């Protein structure tokens, strides 16, 4: 029998609470450049990290760590590593696609007052982790859930966030002294913003479109490429 004293009532949210949750989901954006220089108060940053820390994790292993960078010189070093990889990435596209890529402003590392590197300690739960016995990547997925929690909490606080993925893993490890056994999952830029795109920036600028949900739902079994 479950310990009923440890259970909370699963009452539905009020309409206003539900609307707020969906508003955060539907208006969340990947912010690349629009950051203001205003600092994020320590108590607000702690709230965001606490929201991340309350994400679900396989076997309750809580594999995440958060390396917070505030100093301009630290962010500048990270930007240089990013810029090297970004130039390589631009060369992977051609023609109009490359022009569009280069037109995207990717200055968040420098402009955002807070950068956070989110890592996953895959050894934290020991060799055998409840729920990870047959899917070894569940700890990585758990860490991504923490990032999503942080992102939605940031949106609710009026803070923009961008996820930077254009790095050489070895460069980030060297700059942040991250051991080889630790997985780098996300590098995030956070700061206040005056405005957000009504739709994703890459959709607004013609890079891609949102796929209709109906094309992505299969009934009962895989039904071919959508």
From TrEMBL:
Family affiliation: Belongs to the BluB family.
Protein name (Swiss-Prot/TrEMBL): 5,6-dimethylbenzimidazole synthase
InterPro entries per the UniProt record, alphabetical: BluB, Nitroreductase, Nitroreductase-like, Nitroreductase/BluB
Encoding gene (name): bluB
GO BP of this protein: cobalamin biosynthetic process
UniProt lineage: Bacteria, Pseudomonadati, Pseudomonadota, Alphaproteobacteria, Rhodobacterales
Matching SUPFAM superfamilies: FMN-dependent nitroreductase-like
Domain (Nitroreductase): residue spans on this chain: 25-192
Secretion signal span: none
Oligomer status and interactors: Homooctamer.
Keyword tags: Cobalamin biosynthesis, Flavoprotein, FMN, NAD, NADP, Nucleotide-binding, Oxidoreductase
EC number: 1.13.11.79
Annotated catalysed reactions: FMNH2 + O2 = dialurate + 5,6-dimethylbenzimidazole + D-erythrose 4-phosphate + H(+)
GO molecular-function terms, A-Z: 5,6-dimethylbenzimidazole synthase activity; nucleotide binding; oxidoreductase activity, acting on paired donors, with incorporation or reduction of molecular oxygen
């Amino acid at each position: 029998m479950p310990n009923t004293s440890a259970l909370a009532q699963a009452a539905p949210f009020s309409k206003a609470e539900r609307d707020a949750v969906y508003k955060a989901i539907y208006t969340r954006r990947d912010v690349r450049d629009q950051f203001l220089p205003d600092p994020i108060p320590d108590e607000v940053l702690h709230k965001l990290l606490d929201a991340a820390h309350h994400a679900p994790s396989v076997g309750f292993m809580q594999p995440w760590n958060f390396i917070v960078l505030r100093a301009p010189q630290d962010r500048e070093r990270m930007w240089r590593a990013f810029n090297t990889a970004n130039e390589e990435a631009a060369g992977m596209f051609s023609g109009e696609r490359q022009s569009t890529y280069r037109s995207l402003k990717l200055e968040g590392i420098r402009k955002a007052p807070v950068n956070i590197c989110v890592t996953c300690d895959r050894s934290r739960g020991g060799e055998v982790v409840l729920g990870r016995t047959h899917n070894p990547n569940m700890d990585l997925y758990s860490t991504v859930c923490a990032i999503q929690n942080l992102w939605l909490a940031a949106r609710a606080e009026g803070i923009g966030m961008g996820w930077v993925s254009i790095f050489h893993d070895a460069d980030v490890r060297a700059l942040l002294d991250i051991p080889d056994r630790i997985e780098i999952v996300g590098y995030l830029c956070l700061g206040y913003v005056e405005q957000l795109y009504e739709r994703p920036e890459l959709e607004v600028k013609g890079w891609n479109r949102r796929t209709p949900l109906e094309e992505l739902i299969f009934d009962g079994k895989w039904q071919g490429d959508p």
